[in-house]
Amino acid sequence: MIVRSAKPADFTHLETFVWQAIFPTFDVEGLTEEQRGENDALVEGARGQLNDALQREGTVVLAALAPRSQSLLGYVIADGRRDGYAEIVLLLVKRSHWGKGVAAALLEAARGGIGRHRPLSAAIRNYNDRAKAFFAKHGFEDTGETVGDFAIPRVLYQKAADRPVEEPLDEGD
Q1: What is the CA radius of gyration of the chain?
Q2: pLDDT tens digits for 119-149?
Q3: Entry pTM
Q4: Which end of the chain is more exposed for a tag (fewer CB within 10 A), N or C?
Q5: Sign (positive/negative) of CA torsion 55, 118, 62, 145?
Q6: What residues in the chain have per-residue pLDDT under 50?
C-alpha cells in the first residue's frame, strides 16, 4: 500500500467509492428521511468536499493506493487550521480493505501531516460502532458529547497530543 498526498487524479470515481465505502454501514434501520438524505449528501458532495480540502491551506488530504494498480483504497481529510484540536473530517476505506491496516496507515500519516504535537478530534455518527472501536483502539476517547448540527447525531472523540520526547540534560547544565 502507498500512502501519499492526494491528487485529483486519485479520485476518478469518487462518488462510487464513497457510496461503496459507507453503505450499508450508514444505512441502518430506523433512519428518518432527513437522516437518509444526510447520508446521500455525503456521497453527492464528496467531490466538492475533496476539492475544497485539496485547496485549503492547513488541511491534509492523503490517499492510500494499491501499489500495482494505483487504485484508491481509502482517503483521509484532516483539518489542522484551527487552534487547539485538529479534526479528522473524513476517513473512508474501501470495504474490501477493512481490517487490513489502511485506516490505521491513513490516520498515522494524517497525524504526521498536521503535527503529532496537535490534539485530534473526530465526530463519529452515533451508530457507527466500527468507527468508534477503531478510534478508541488508536487512543481516542469518547467525550460523551454530541457535536455539530447534523440530522444524524455525532459523538465527539478526542485524542491528546503526543508528548514531546524530553532530551536528557547535559551534565554541564
Answers
A1: 17
A2: 999 999 999 999 999 999 999 999 999 999 9
A3: 0.90
A4: C
A5: negative
A6: none
Of the candidates 126, 46, 59, 117, the residue with the CA atom closest to the CA atom of residue 87: 59
* Beta-strand relationship, 59-65 and 120-125: unpaired
| C-alpha distance from residue 61 to each of 67, 79, 106, 132, 149 (Å) | 18, 9, 10, 21, 24
Classify residue 159 as exposed, middle or buried by CB count within 10 Å of its CB (0-12, 13-18, 19+): buried
Own/partner contacts of 38-47, CB < 8 Å, gap of 24 or more, are 38/150, 38/151, 38/152, 39/152, 42/18, 43/15, 43/18, 43/19, 44/15, 46/14, 46/15, 46/18, 47/11, 47/14, 47/15
